[in-house]
Amino acid sequence: MQRVTKLGAIALIAIGAVGGSAAAVSAHSDHGDRGDHGHRASAIQHVLLISVDGMHQSDLDWYIANHSTSELAKLAYGGAEFTNNHTSDPSDSDPGGTAIMTGGDPRATGVYYDVEYSHGVFPPGTTTCKGPVPGGNVIYDSPDDILNAVPDFLHSNPSDPAYQTFPAFDEDGSVFPGGNDTNTAGRTPSDILTLTPAPQSGLNPKTYPVDPTTCQPIQPWDYLKVNSIFQVIQNAGLRTAWSDKHAIYTSFNGHGSGGTSIDDFFGPEIDSQAVEPDGTPYPSDTDWAHDDAA
Prior knowledge:
alpha+beta; 5-stranded mixed beta sheet; two-stranded antiparallel ribbon; 6 helices; globular; disordered N terminus
């Protein structure tokens, strides 16, 4: 087994007959007998990719040493690890995840952060693209807290000073289309299992940068300058699936994909309103990422 050193974050890839998982790429490939190159005969049915944000190689080594029968240990023992591997620079969730999905660093992918500036776009909301390209914000971010009592809302009321300030999730702070998390609306956390595999329906293109050529908002997957592993796998006639913390990470579909190279995307928004089992907001009135009780 090859060993991996991956600084700042760990990505485990397990190849074999892997059962159901929230982050699995399903594949089937039959290889011939061991040949001159020493490759063992195998029938790969599934590939499982798990990215653990912030985990260093030393963390994984310690955990496996102290929990040798854990699922992580089993994946590490049965998978492939590479010793000369490094995170992107910068290596926050978006550029780091993009690097894993594409094999490219930010210079190749164009993704340096989920909030950046580009000289090659028109600002969000532009409808007439004439004259020199002025440059503009590129914000493919989850919504951020800006009002204490209304965390992670898009602010859809035009009278709101923060109107349409934050882009990614147009659901009024909800993990559900329509923004209803209350018990009276019949929404409970268990409904998360019915989320659409096309979460781009909950995104707000009005906040995307605008393409100077088409004068249309640039979808998050098309802002990438390269293709992704999901396109390669799907083009081979195989099925893909991915789960992540932001719906905006449909960007991993890759450039030119039309947002469809991930067949089954499960992306409940981690920055949405945290609610109790009956659907009412937690007393702290915050999101799933920051409410420890949730």
